Amino acid sequence: MKASIIFFVSALRSLAAAVPIDDVATTLYYGKCKALDGPGECVFTNNGESVTKPCGVNYKCKFTGENCHYNPTGGHAHCNL
């Protein structure tokens, strides 16, 4: 019984080592909102370059200049913070 437990634990460790753990992007890019027709856009700087991303449908920009942030894993910006 003890040998099977040791084998099982050893197998779990091998499996855990073989499965890559993806780094989840936790970086939020903060910027200012541009109010346009539709949900608007979030404009921020990344590595010295200006980047524009659309605001999400549920996170529409209310007015130009309001704060917004963009999370690369989400695909859209949150503009009504």
Structural class: alpha+beta
What's the CATH class of the domain at 27-81, please?
Mainly Beta
How much helix is in the residues? 10-25%
CATH topology of the domain at 27-81: OB fold (Dihydrolipoamide Acetyltransferase, E2P)
Report how far apart the termini are: 57 Å
Instruction: Quickly count the helices.
Output: 1
| CATH architecture identity of the domain at 27-81 | Beta Barrel
Order of helices and strands: HEEEEE
* Strand order of the biggest β-sheet: 3-2-1-4-5
Largest sheet: 5 strands, antiparallel
Strand content: 25-35%
Protein name: Uu.00g021680.m01.CDS01
Organism: Anthostomella pinea
Keywords: Signal
Signal peptide: 1-18
Can you tell me about this structure?
The protein has 81 residues and is an alpha+beta fold. It has a five-stranded antiparallel β-sheet, with no helix packed on it. The chain has a domain at 27-81: Beta Barrel (OB fold (Dihydrolipoamide Acetyltransferase, E2P)). The protein is built from one helix and five strands, in the order H-E-E-E-E-E. A hairpin with a 2-residue loop joins strand 2 and strand 3. It comes from Anthostomella pinea. Residues 1-18 form the signal peptide.
Question: Topology of this protein?
Answer:
Layout: H1 2-18, E1 29-34, E2 41-46, E3 49-54, E4 67-70, E5 77-78
Antiparallel strand pairs: 1-2, 1-4, 2-3, 4-5
Descriptors:
signal, OB fold (Dihydrolipoamide Acetyltransferase, E2P), 5-stranded antiparallel sheet, 21% helix, 81 residues, alpha+beta
